[in-house]
Write a structure and sequence with these properties.
Layout: E1 3-6, E2 9-11, E3 14-16, E4 21-22, E5 27-28, E6 33-35, E7 38-41, E8 45-48, H1 56-66, E9 74-76, H2 82-85, H3 88-94, E10 99-103, H4 104-114, E11 119-123, E12 128-130, E13 135-140, E14 150-154, E15 159-163, H5 182-197, H6 201-213, E16 220-223, H7 234-245, E17 249-256, H8 262-276, E18 281-285, H9 291-300, E19 301-307, E20 310-311, E21 314-315, H10 320-329, E22 335-342, H11 348-358, E23 362-363, E24 368-371, H12 376-395
Parallel strand pairs: 8-9, 9-10, 10-11, 15-16, 17-18, 17-19, 19-22, 22-23, 22-24
Antiparallel strand pairs: 1-2, 2-7, 3-6, 4-5, 7-8, 12-13, 13-14, 14-15, 20-21
Bound molecules: MU-OXO-diiron.
């Protein structure tokens, strides 16, 4: 259902209730998503972003509720990833002479996706396009989260459309932040930040300062996924500042996988030691848990404890996606340790330690290994290990 944000400014996007994996199969989306597209009626008619291609006809129908799609003069493609640009070919069939406004890097990426000789106009930070009573103002936002990413601001109505920034994969019956469950909203906003924006946190802080310095009045922040921030929209900007600082809580997370439960026993007793030492923690067996949810726990925790038995001179394959995510997401201000059982060669703990260090995670102490199944005294060592980690977590 089309929703009016401000007079003449409409949400014409779609709600994808059933999306469960995103970016191929990389990201879990337990609560679906929305693809937000905005139609602006002024002397010129503007569409800001489209939707994922399977929903393109629904987008056209939504636009048709307001205006004949042939009357669109300008389409802004803030970012070329196909969840936002996938509807472009369908829309352009209705208005082939429309101007497609992109960032400089968007020229390359939008053309690269669709190979069409559309009437492109590349803009840079500070450029304005007059559309009648109001202007569109553009702010390049490279690496938030692609090199081509851009924000579009509508003067007069004071609507900031920052594409993926400030979004959430969250399908809802209502469009605005004040209408939805606040706990779910922030769970999804944080999960989105952790899994997509964490590596770019220094740029997030700079971009927020840059946008605030423009002193543009902001009544609404309308991202390209999830709820639209109309009630105190700056609340999500402040949250992004907080998340981008990556100041961890004095808590820990123990992430492991196991073959015959020896490493599982170690994980559980290390967690008991952490709790004895007054540090709350989560224990997550990565092979049977959602990686993206686990990474949210990683983002919160000061201490990251990773365990794997040794197999074929390395770690269990099920632990590898976690290690790869720790590398790619470039978490800051973390300390860690490793543990694991072994029977013969026993390399896993050393390999995990080396990997944590390469990820910029400081080792609190030497890792803990148990040969075969842990004996009672070795479980005592695990508990002591947990207590040491607790002291380091509180004292860091
Ligand atoms: Fe970067 Fe929502 O796509």
């Amino acid at each position: 259902m089309v929703t009016e944000l401000k007079k003449g400014v409409y949400w014409v996007g779609v709600v994808d209730w059933n999306l469960r994996r995103f970016h191929g199969h990389e990201l879990s989306t337990h609560r679906g998503s929305t693809y937000n597209s905005y139609l602006i009626r002024d002397e010129k008619t503007v569409l800001v972003d489209t939707v994922w291609e399977p929903f393109a006809e629904q987008l056209i129908e939504n636009i048709r509720q307001i205006i004949d799609p042939a009357k669109i003069d300008i389409i802004v493609a803030n970012h070329s990833e196909v969840d936002h640009s996938g509807g472009l070919p369908s829309v352009m069939r209705h208005c082939p002479d429309a101007t497609v406004v992109v960032s400089k890097r968007g020229l390359e990426s939008v053309e690269g996706h669709y190979h069409q000789p559309w009437n492109f106009k590349a803009v840079k930070t500070g450029d304005h396009i007059n559309i009648g009573a109001n202007d569109l103002v553009f702010v390049e936002a490279p690496m938030l989260h692609w090199p081509d990413s851009m924000f579009t601001y509508l003067t007069g109505h004071n609507v900031l459309m920052p594409n993926d920034a400030f979004g959430q994969h969250y399908a809802t019956a209502y469009r605005f932040n004040d209408q939805v469950n606040q706990e779910e909203l922030y769970e999804e906003a944080l999960k989105y930040y952790v899994n997509i924006l964490t590596p770019f946190s220094p740029l997030v802080l700079k971009k927020i300062d840059e946008v605030l310095a423009l002193k543009l009045p902001v009544d609404i922040i309308a991202p390209s996924h999830g709820a639209i921030w109309r009630e105190n929209p700056i609340q999500i900007v402040e949250k992004y500042r907080q998340w981008a600082r990556q100041e961890p809580e004095p808590r820990a997370v123990v992430l492991f996988d196991t073959m015959w439960n020896g490493t599982r026993r170690m994980a559980e007793v290390i967690a008991e030691g952490l709790a004895d030492g007054g540090v709350d923690c989560k224990v997550i067996q990565v092979a049977v848990s959602d990686l993206n949810d686990a990474l949210v726990e990683v983002s919160r925790a000061r201490t990251i404890v990773v365990g794997s038995p040794t197999v074929n001179g390395g770690v269990l394959a099920s632990v590898t996606p976690l290690l790869e995510s720790l590398r790619g997401l470039k978490f800051k201000n973390k300390q860690g340790a490793a543990f694991g059982c072994y029977g013969w060669s026993g390399e896993s703990v050393k390999l995990i330690e080396e990997h944590l260090q390469k990820c910029g995670i400081t080792l609190v102490r030497e890792g803990l290994r148990c040969k075969w199944q842990p004996r009672a005294e070795e479980l005592d060592s695990c508990r002591a290990f947990g207590r040491e980690l607790a002291a380091a977590t509180k004292g860091a």
